[in-house]
Design goal:
Number of helices: 23
CATH class: Mainly Alpha
Structural class: mainly alpha
Radius of gyration: 23 Å
Number of domains: 1
Order of helices and strands: HHHHHHHHHHHHHHHHHHHHHHH
Oligomer: single chain
Helix content: over 70%
Low-confidence stretches: 1-29, 541-547
Distance between the termini: 60 Å
Strand content: under 5%
Number of strands: 0
């Protein structure tokens, strides 16, 4: 009662900002407003890039922003990395389309952060330099392990990039009427500019600004939606159920995932994949010490948890206010731009063209920030893990940074081409493929290297290759790629979510081969675990000297 009394005076004012019907003139004006916001945000991010470029002189600056980012700043940047187009557009679109089951993506992604907080953040900071491969290779053979780590990172980065590029292309296509191919090409060009010139410092600050804007914009949309239902979640849900074809069934599980194996495998990808994403792991090297690394994960978890609570209201709000509205659908009743655009159409329905323009520009900034971080982690895998550590160990810092920039251009082109191929897929599922690789290759390798003394190079290579081949093979031969993308009648692998099988293959291969390895190198690698453990706990070498 007290809550209702406090909120009631606000309802008329909020409803003034939340027109339920938008006129044709407003629809025309919305494009101009969105373009204005786009220009402002792109200009601001380019200014940040120019500022950062003047402060980026060494590889440490380029890859780790000089190690001078605070825990709060890094937490916001990590949240900005994680709250991608897949989170805002994809998860809200899944909730809009499937109801309860769409929340699996939100809850599963959030559940992975305790693993990062308690198992990885401090140890990575104490052991690594620029990438997680630095930590893994302390007691294992550097060349083969770096090749494996770089391969897993590159596959995860490319898969993650596809989802972001598809989301950006659809967003610009719906708002401005541009051809999808042109829209994706524009995003790829901007991404290359940010990373090539600004490095990690520019990427970090773009992510921080974007995280603040996204949290603020999503909060505003949520408040405006609830205002139309007297701030009653029950009224909102009842209105959503009346609009959705499945009715009350959207509140029950089973709409998106139909069998127990798929549920467990999807959860495996989301929980353990979070702890194996290379662009997330790379962020722990931007802070000055292990304490700030731990604080950054704490802040990131709080921001991400709050954001996913908002996606619940946004998804069901789109059901209530957008579903069935001819203004947001084509002649067949299908949502313009697909379910991925449910949150954008809701912003239009709830706040008119001004909020539509703002949220569209925020989503665009979100995608630019995330693809910049992804591209930087992919470029670092090529230049640091492969070029500087394997092929040219004596390369100068300037040469390594130059290779990073070349790698950025190549990754941008590959991401654009693959985004054209996967145009019709839900962006949340596309990103889940990256989580699958992270859970199948990077997480088992990192976990066993940090916590199991018996891991050997032979075991790590065997398990990593088994996990990577299983994950990629099941993705290509599964229902999404083999049937929906390549047009075959039946999938060879029946399961859409292969993370459970791939992660089991990775762990089992690593453990069995390591236990059977009796070589002299394996003996040295097991003996080196004690020194690595001391360093991971304290940041000091075995004799107590700074590592």
């Amino acid at each position: 009662m007290m809550r209702d009394a406090m909120l009631k005076p606000l309802v008329p004012a909020l409803l003034l900002l939340a027109p339920t019907a938008v006129s044709a003139a407003e629809s025309v004006n919305s494009g101009g407003i969105a373009i204005t916001f786009f220009i402002v945000f792109v200009a601001a991010t380019l200014a940040i890039t120019w500022w950062a470029a003047r402060r980026t002189h060494t590889t440490h600056d380029f890859y780790a922003a000089g190690g001078n980012i605070s825990g709060l700043q890094n937490g916001l940047a990590i949240a900005g990395d994680f709250m991608s187009a897949a989170s805002f557009l994809g998860v809200s679109g899944l909730i809009f389309g499937f109801g309860f089951d769409g929340l699996i993506y939100a809850v599963g992604g959030l559940a992975g952060w305790p693993l990062v907080l308690f198992l990885l953040s401090e140890r990575l900071k104490n052991l690594g330099k620029y990438t997680f491969a630095d930590a893994v290779t302390l007691r294992l053979a550097a060349t083969p392990i770096r090749c494996l780590a770089a391969s897993g990172s590159l596959v995860a980065v490319v898969l993650y990039l596809i989802g972001q590029m598809v989301g950006a292309g659809k967003l610009i296509e719906v708002l401005f009427g541009l051809n999808y191919s042109v829209a994706v090409g524009c995003v790829g060009t901007l991404m290359i500019v940010y990373v090539c010139f600004g490095g990690m410092l520019a990427t970090t600050w773009v992510q921080i600004i974007k995280a603040v804007l996204l949290l603020g914009g999503a909060s505003l949309v949520t408040v405006l939606v609830l205002a139309q239902f007297n701030f009653s979640l029950n009224q909102l849900l009842m209105a959503a159920l009346k609009q959705h074809a499945r009715g009350v069934a959207v509140l029950a599980p089973g709409g998106l995932v139909h069998d127990p194996v798929s549920v467990v495998s999807l959860g495996t990808a989301l929980v353990f994949g979070t702890a194996g994403l290379p662009h997330i792991l790379m962020r722990f090297f931007t802070v000055p010490n292990a304490r700030e690394a731990r604080r950054s994960v704490f802040f990131a978890t709080a921001f991400i948890g709050y954001f996913y609570m908002l996606t619940f209201v946004i998804g069901f709000g789109a059901m209530a206010l957008v579903l069935g509205n001819p203004q947001f659908a084509d002649a067949t009743g299908r949502l313009l731009g697909g379910d991925n655009m449910a949150a954008i159409h809701l912003a239009h329905a709830a706040g008119g063209p001004l909020l539509l323009g703002f949220m569209s520009a925020v989503c665009f900034a979100t995608i630019l920030a995330v693809v910049s971080g992804l591209t930087l982690s992919g470029a670092s895998a090529i230049s640091h893990d492969l070029y500087a550590s394997v092929f040219r160990p004596n390369a100068s810092e300037q040469e390594v940074v130059r290779v990073s920039r070349y790698a950025t251009i190549v990754l941008g082109v590959v991401a654009v081409l693959l985004a054209l191929l996967f145009e019709s897929q839900n962006v949340a599922y596309l990103v889940l493929m990256a989580f699958t690789v992270g859970a199948s290759v990077n997480f088992p390798l990192l976990f066993l290297a940090l916590f199991w003394r018996n891991l050997t190079t032979s075991g790590a290579l065997t398990g990593g290759v088994m996990g990577l081949v299983t994950a990629v093979g099941c993705i290509v031969l599964g229902p999404t790629v083999w049937v929906e993308v390549l047009g075959n009648a039946e999938p060879i692998v029946p399961y859409k979510y292969p993370a459970l099988f791939a992660m089991c293959a990775s762990f089992s291969g690593s453990i069995v081969v390591s236990l059977l390895d009796r070589s002299a190198r394996a003996t040295r690698e097991r003996a080196g675990f004690n020194a690595q453990y001391i360093r991971s706990q304290t940041g000091l070498g075995a004799e107590g000297t700074p590592a």
